[in-house]
Design a protein that fits this description.
Low-confidence stretches: none
Structural class: alpha/beta
Largest sheet: 6 strands, mixed
Distance between the termini: 33 Å
CATH topology of the largest domain: 2-enoyl-CoA Hydratase, Chain A, domain 1
Radius of gyration: 19 Å
Order of helices and strands: EEHEHEEEEHEEHHEHEHHHH
Number of helices: 10
Strand order of the largest sheet: 1-2-3-6-8-11
Helix content: 40-55%
Strand content: 15-25%
Number of domains: 2
Number of strands: 11
CATH class of the largest domain: Alpha Beta
Length: about 250
């Protein structure tokens, strides 16, 4: 139900359950966790892209699985819901959203570092319409991605926000025509892969720490530590050398 395909330096993770609107059951959750394990462990994979097959990115939790007593299987030991929402990782992941991303599906997208969406996409946390609470990170990640008043409206009404508005408000990095989200996400991933991967991962770590509310003193310390790690890599010498020689740098990831 979850495919992993390495395309150059980009690992494409695809939820393949279109008959159930790519809803998350135990197999999908464990499949996403295993795919992220592969991404993290493979030195040839520098950036991940996660997408869903068909016209829906993901409708969130599989209510049939929950009704049959399989709710626990939707959460994995390392990743939480869908194997990703609480996952600690080093490598960037981009969500390629080419249809509705609702409830847990929206929370999967928000767990990623960047979102590329088509005009057919929409994002929503409709849990309140069913006397539920969005429990996989959406209630605090959405206000980081959208202006607080807009996030509050989406959360309290349960109504989705169209991709075009999400793009205008900065939640979506790139807005494309229907059917083009995956190719655009891979193109964005390639732009990231053109950079030194250790520098990318250390920079990502600091941005996430800042978004979590870490204070400036701690962020200065984290930045100094990150710079020290980058200085110890072969890529640290390659970057300035490539600039002097007027050519693209050839990152090795070490």
């Amino acid at each position: 139900m979850v495919d992993y395909e390495l395309q150059g330096r980009v690992a494409v993770i695809t939820i393949r359950r279109p008959e159930a609107r790519n809803a998350v059951n135990g197999e999908v959750a464990s499949g996403i966790e295993a795919a992220i394990d592969r991404l993290e462990d493979d030195p040839e994979a520098w950036v991940g892209v996660i997408t869903g097959e068909g016209s829906v990115f993901s409708a969130g939790a599989d209510l049939k699985a929950i009704a049959s007593g399989q709710a626990a299987a939707l959460n994995t030991s390392k990743g939480g819901f869908a194997g990703i929402t609480r996952r600690e990782r080093d490598k960037p992941i981009i969500a390629a959203v080419d249809g509705p991303a609702l409830a847990g599906g929206c929370e999967i997208a928000l767990s990623c570092d960047l979102i590329v969406a088509s005009k057919a996409a929409a994002f929503g946390l409709p849990e309140v319409k069913r006397s539920l609470v969005a429990a996989a990170g959406g209630l605090f990640r959405l206000p980081r991605a959208l202006p607080p008043a807009v996030a509050m409206e989406v959360i309290l009404t349960g109504d989705p926000i169209p991709a075009e508005r999400a793009y205008q408000l900065g939640m979506v990095s790139d807005l494309v025509e229907p059917g083009e989200a995956l190719s655009a996400a891979k193109a964005l991933a390639e732009r990231i892969c053109a950079n030194a991967p250790v520098a990318v991962r250390e920079s990502r770590k600091i941005v996430l720490a800042a978004l979590s509310g870490m204070g400036d003193d701690e962020l200065w310390s984290l930045t100094g530590s990150a710079f020290g790690k980058v200085m110890q890599t072969d890529d640290f010498a390659e970057g300035p050398r490539a600039f002097i020689e007027k050519r693209p740098p050839e990152g090795k990831g070490r």
